[in-house]
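Interim report to the steering committee. The following record documents the input for Transmembrane protein (363 residues).
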Amino acid sequence: MDTAIHTPLPERASRRRSSTSDAGSYKVDSTKTKKKKKAARRTHLWIRVCGAMMSLVLSAGIVTVMPYCQEHRCGDAVKAFVVDQVHGIGAFVEHVSSGQVVDAVRQKSAWVLEMAKVQVSRAKDGVMKKVDELQSFLEEKKATQQTGKERSVEVLNRAVLNAVLGLDEKSPDWGSIVSSLDDVWSFRKISRNKANVAMFVCTDATSCRTTEDELAAVAPPSMVMKLDVTGQVDTMERGEVQHRLATFLKESPRGVVVVPRIDQWSTLLISVLNNAMGEGGSLMQDGEQVPTHDATYMLTVQIPKNIVQGADSAAKLSTDVKRHLHSTLFGSQAQDDVSNLGSISIGFRRRVDVVVPSKSSSL
C-alpha cells in the first residue's frame, strides 16, 4: 500500500504539461515567421511601388526632355541617356533597403533629371554653334559671290577703271568719261530700258588680251561671262551665240558680258548682240523670252594706233572708232544684203554708250 501511495504519478502530469508548452512555443514561432514573411512581402511590394514611382518620375523627365530635343534637334544623345537610366531603375531598386528607398528615389530622380538638363544644354550649345558657323559661312559666301539677280553698286570692282582706262586725269574728257563709266560700273542706266555698253579701244592684240582679263575681274566669277568667238567666227552659228548668252543671262540678269575683239565678229553674230543690247532687249530660249537689257556689256576692239592718236577728244575718238569698225565689219561682206548690213551697223553703233581708250592707247 505504501508502494502504491508513492507511485510517481506527478511525473506523467509533468510530461503532459511539457508537451502543451512545446506546442504553444511552436505556434508562437510559426506566427512570428508568418509575420516576418508578410512584412518582407510588404517591404518588397513597397520597394516595387517606389521603383514604379521612380520610373514615373524618370518618364516625366522623358516627356519633358524629348519635346525640347525635338524642337532644338538635339539628336539621340539625350534620349539614349534618359532611357538607359529608366531601364536600369529596376536593378537599382533591388539593391536598396526599405529605409533608403524614398531618399534614394528622390536623389536618383534629381540626378537623372539634372544630367538630362546638362545633356540638353550641351546639345543645344552644339546646335547653336553649328548654326552660327553655317550663318557665318553663308554671309561670307554671299559677300564674295553674289547671285546675278542682286542689284548692287558695290559688285563691280572700280579699281579696274584705273587699271584699264588710258586717260590722263587732266584730260578735258576725263570727267564725262568717268561719269559714264561710273554708271556702267554701278549698273545705273545710261539709256532708259537699254543695256549699258562700253567699248574699250586697244592698239594691239597683247593689250587687248590684257584689257579683257582685267575686265573679266570686275565682278565675282558667277556674274561674268567671257563671250569669246575668236577663231570660231566662220564656224560658229548664230544660234550657239544666242544660246550661250541666254543661258548666262537667265541665271544672272544683271551679269557682265565681256566680248573680246568685236572687230573679229561677223555681222551674223553681231545681230545677236544687237538684239540683246537694245531697248527692251531679249533672246528666245526653249520657247521662253529671256530679258537681256539689264546686263552690262564690255567690248574690246583693236584699232590702228594712228586713228587713236589722231583723235583729240573723246567724241572724235568715238566717231573714228565706230567708222573704222563699220568698214572692218561690213565693208568686206558684200555678199550680205546691203540694207540689212546698214540696219545692223546703225543699230550696233547706237547701242555703244561710251568708247574709251585702254592703257595701251592714250589720247
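The CA atoms of residues 51 and 89 lie 7 Å apart. The committee is asked to note this result when reviewing the revised timeline.
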